[in-house]
Amino acid sequence: MTFHFHAGTQMNSTKLAANLPETAWVLAIIFSTISGIGGCSSEEGRVNVSENFDGNSFDRTVWQMARPAPEDGTVEIKDDAMVFTLPQADKPRPQIRTTAKFAFTGNFEAMIDYSLLTPLPEPDKEYVNVELVVYGEEFDSHLSRVNHHGSGNGVVAYFSPKLESLKSHWTIAPTAVERGTLKVQRTGGSLEFLHRPESSDNFDVLGKVECGTKPIDGMCIAVTVATPTKTAFEVAIDNIAVRTIHDDVPLMKRTDVRIAAGAAVLLLIAGLGIWIARRPRKKPSGKSKPVANSAAATAANVAPPRRKERPSPEQVPDSTDDFNVS
Questions:
Q1: To the nearest 10°, the Cα dihedral for 88, 71, 117, 114?
Q2: What are the helix and strand counts (H, E) for the chain?
């Protein structure tokens, strides 16, 4: 951001010093408005989001809660969790998903805890999925607790590339656990799919694939029922966590950076004003012309000088703001 300071050719050092406090406050207000001093607590270059649904509430600025049609199911925040309830159905139904309102870049890890409050129904065909989905320009990834027609209960890792240079991946690890953690993480250009039963302290790796390094557009928590189901079921999601990992980015808050920059601007303005006010004035060169000894001349010499007009708005260039906040 660049500020253009224009005093006009007629403005002298005394007037500039006199107007210094007003100028400093105006510039400070402009700077703080654009930079957001005092209101920003996020960290530069990082995402660190967690949602535990404590007190049966959630952050509506971060999550777009699923709102399915009543015949397809319901999503409620209760018992400090996000609970999906799906009735019996004679046909497949649309995917029900809660979506993040943020994107992220670089290395990351995303995870959710799931609890099958009732068993996943037996699919007549296809599958019933409770899944963590991460998607971007280069790929879609799905990590699911599933009941799969033909393969049974398990955890499925599915990688769907959008570039020809990347390979697809699908695998299932049989399991009957009802509570666990699904985790997807990227390190460099590799994506890992991991699962941990609630009874274990360690994650099992289901697969690792090359995924690219471009930004991630978003993530969601979804229930996908691609089959008729003879019974209703419920699943709870809790402890959603998403964080980016930037080892090469200093841990510095935007608030600290902006306050420091604002203080530097104010000190610069104050120092400039003091220097202008105290610097010695140059004596006029050459001989001055004699003044006629007349009453009119005497009156002109003792009368206060006319106040110089301030430059019009057309003469003062606007400050340039090239900091685009989307």
A1: 120
A2: 4, 15
Query: Cβ of 166: how many Cβ atoms within 10 Å?
Result: 18
| The CATH number fitting domain 48-245, selected from 1.10.1040.10, 3.30.420.40, 2.60.120.200, 2.70.70.10 | 2.60.120.200
Select the more confidently predicted residue: 53 or 269: 53
The larger pLDDT score, comparing residue 235 to residue 37, is at 235
CA gap 87, 49 in Å, rounded: 31
Query: Mean pLDDT for the chain?
Result: 76
Q: Which of 52-66, 187-201, 246-260 shows the lowest per-residue confidence on average (mean pLDDT)?
A: 246-260
Residue 324 three-state SS:
coil
Contact of 173 with 195, CB cutoff 8 Å: yes
Beta-strand (E) ranges in the chain? 48-51, 63-64, 74-78, 81-86, 96-100, 107-116, 127-136, 139-148, 152-161, 169-174, 179-187, 190-197, 204-210, 216-225, 233-245
The pTM (predicted TM-score) of the whole model is: 0.64
Please state, in angstroms and rounded to a whole number, the distance separating the CA atoms of residues 188 and 165.
16
d(CA 176, CA 262): 58
Sign, CA dihedral 292-298-301-304, equals negative
Question: Domain boundaries in the chain?
Answer: 18-39+252-279, 48-245
**How far apart, in whole angstroms, are the C-alpha atoms of residue 318 and residue 288?**
40
Measured CA to CA, the distance from residue 10 to residue 272 in angstroms comes to 18
Distance CA 88, CA 69 (A): 14
Give CA–CA dist 243/64, Å, rounded. Answer: 18
CA gap 87, 72 in Å, rounded = 7
